[in-house]
Amino acid sequence: MINFLKKISFKQILFFLVCVLVVEFLLLKHTPFFWDAITKSSRASWIYANGLTEFIVPTEYNSGHPPLWISLLAIFWTIFEKALWSSRLLLLIVNVGVAWQIVLFCKTNFLKTVSAFAVFIVCLEPTFIAQTTNLNNDMLLLFFTFLGLNSLIKSRTIFFTLALVGLLLVNLRGVYIVVSIALIHVIYVRLKLIESRKLIYISYLIAVFSFAVFCYFQYEKLGWFLISQNENYNAHRQSVGVKQVLINSIVYVKSFLEYGRFIIAIILLPLLVKYIKDKTNRDVKIDRVAIAFFVLAFIFFIGMVPFSNPFGDRYFMVCYLLAIVLLVNLMAHYDVAKKTVVYAVMVVMFITGHFWIYPATLSQSWDSSLAYLNSYTVEAKMERFIDSSGIEPTEIGTRILLNAREFSEFKDISEADRYADFNINTNQFILLSNIDNQTKDDELNEIMTNWKLVQHYSQLGVFMSLYKRE
Question: pTM for the whole thing?
Answer without folding.
Answer: 0.93
